[in-house]
Q: What sequence folds into this?
């Protein structure tokens, strides 16, 4: 039982990754920090259900090795990332095509040289040598590939290489439009936009209508182009658990419902008042607005994740599979156990599929039918392990979207979360970083944070 007059320098309300990362930075700076979580465990939306030896993520958020905060956040040096195959697989017209993989080492110059070489190469008729003067017919798959021919694909590689190397400040200075409109205005071939960029961005942003700010879309493309998609080994819950493990023992208290906050105290339903020098609200946007009326509550993108198992896994390996044709409810799917074997028992495959927007009424039947087309195999004997529907999974980022919403409301009262930054794990971690820096500045402890703040690197397994 807690003492009603429990003392702390900072009370963090919410044990998601934003609150835990902020708490860990504060603790490393010597600030006494207490984390209060209403739920039974840490992690918020980054939770993992265990069913018969399977590890099933509830929201299925993708990470990218290019996320800076995975390297900058204390406590994540032990995070093992399991990588998807480079690029993605696109399903189109009954076939699957690899797209977005590195081009010539992801070098912009190499991709541009590939375009020039393809455009200037002599077209040689069948049966002629290099000196022939005939015309070579187009490749047989030119009209069926969702990205077009070799020149279009090389141009896409060049565009991805450029965005990977574009400074953040330049991306954020671009005019802001809805992502779908911005794609249409950029002069890329329509086949590339509709066959690759739209399904890719829908998967990265959880926004099938591409109403997201074009600046946020550019950041998502930059993360994709500069790194590899990944999942935490062992399930999404591993990331917040690592953060919580780095805190001093007794710092995190679960099952504690906060009923009110001020600049100097937090009142709870179960344990009375916690007095402190500062309060950091690190809950979801709706809960934060309930405690502090007047805070903006964004719209949200609903996400449904359907988990199946089979003893005959589809032959797609560790690939993220997207549907270019948009011929069913599944936005993306993967044999997750091929990416991270720890998520399924030996001899079984775990297939996890994501549905964006409102799910169909008979979701399991609709998803099975769609997966049968995407994977080119019968799904009749697949066993459904779980269907996780999260109505407010991802805060919407429609333009104009402020990627740096203030984390300091007034001296002693702060707020962080993916609703204050970008709606990604990177955004949640970064908002926690910003909030910790603001608190330490106000408490006069910034120097100790910088001395105690290592820069670990998440290791890819």
A:
């Amino acid at each position: 039982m807690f003492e009603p007059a429990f003392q702390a320098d900072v009370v963090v309300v919410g044990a998601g990754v934003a609150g835990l990362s902020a708490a860990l930075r504060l603790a490393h700076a010597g600030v006494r920090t207490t984390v209060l979580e209403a739920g039974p465990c840490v992690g918020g939306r980054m939770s993992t259900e265990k069913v018969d030896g399977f590890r099933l993520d509830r929201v299925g958020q993708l990470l990218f090795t290019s996320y800076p905060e995975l390297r900058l956040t204390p406590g994540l040096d032990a995070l093992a990332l399991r990588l998807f195959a480079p690029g993605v697989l696109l399903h189109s017209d009954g076939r699957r095509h690899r797209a977005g993989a590195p081009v010539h080492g992801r070098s912009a110059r190499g991709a541009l040289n590939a375009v020039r070489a393809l455009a200037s190469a002599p077209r040689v008729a069948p049966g002629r040598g290099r000196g022939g003067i005939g015309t070579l017919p187009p490749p047989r798959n030119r009209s069926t590939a969702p990205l077009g021919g070799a020149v279009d694909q090389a141009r896409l590689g060049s565009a991805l290489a450029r965005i990977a190397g574009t400074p953040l400040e330049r991306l954020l200075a671009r005019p802001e439009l809805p992502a779908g409109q911005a794609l249409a205005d950029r002069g890329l071939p329509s086949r590339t936009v509709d066959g690759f960029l739209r399904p890719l961005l829908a998967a990265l942003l959880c926004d099938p209508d591409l109403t997201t700010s074009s600046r946020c879309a550019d950041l998502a493309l930059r993360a994709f182009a500069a790194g590899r998609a990944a999942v935490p080994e062992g399930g999404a819950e591993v990331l917040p658990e690592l953060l919580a493990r780095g805190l001093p023992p007794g710092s995190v208290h679960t099952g504690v419902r906060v009923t009110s906050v001020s600049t100097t105290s937090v009142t709870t339903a179960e344990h009375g008042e916690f007095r402190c020098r500062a309060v950091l609200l690190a809950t979801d946007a709706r809960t934060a607005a309930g405690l502090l009326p007047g805070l903006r509550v964004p719209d949200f993108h609903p996400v449904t994740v359907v988990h199946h198992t089979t003893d005959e896994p589809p032959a797609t390996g560790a690939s993220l599979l997207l549907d270019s044709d948009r011929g069913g409810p599944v936005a993306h799917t993967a044999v997750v156990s091929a990416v991270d074997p720890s998520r399924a028992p030996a001899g079984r495959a775990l297939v996890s599929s994501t549905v964006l927007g409102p799910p169909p009424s008979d979701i399991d039947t609709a998803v099975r039918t769609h997966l049968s087309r995407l994977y080119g195999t019968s799904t009749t004997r697949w066993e459904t392990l779980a269907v996780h529907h999260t109505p407010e999974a991802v805060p919407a980022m429609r333009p104009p979207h402020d990627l740096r919403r203030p984390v300091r409301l007034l001296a002693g009262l702060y707020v962080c979360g993916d609703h204050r930054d970008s709606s990604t794990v990177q955004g949640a971690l970064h908002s926690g970083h910003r909030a910790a820096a603001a608190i330490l500045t106000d408490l006069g402890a910034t120097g100790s944070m910088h001395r105690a703040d290592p820069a670990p690197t998440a290791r890819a397994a």
Remarks:
- The CA atoms of residues 418 and 428 lie 4 Å apart.
- Confidence is low (pLDDT under 50) at residues 1-5, 104-144, 447-458.
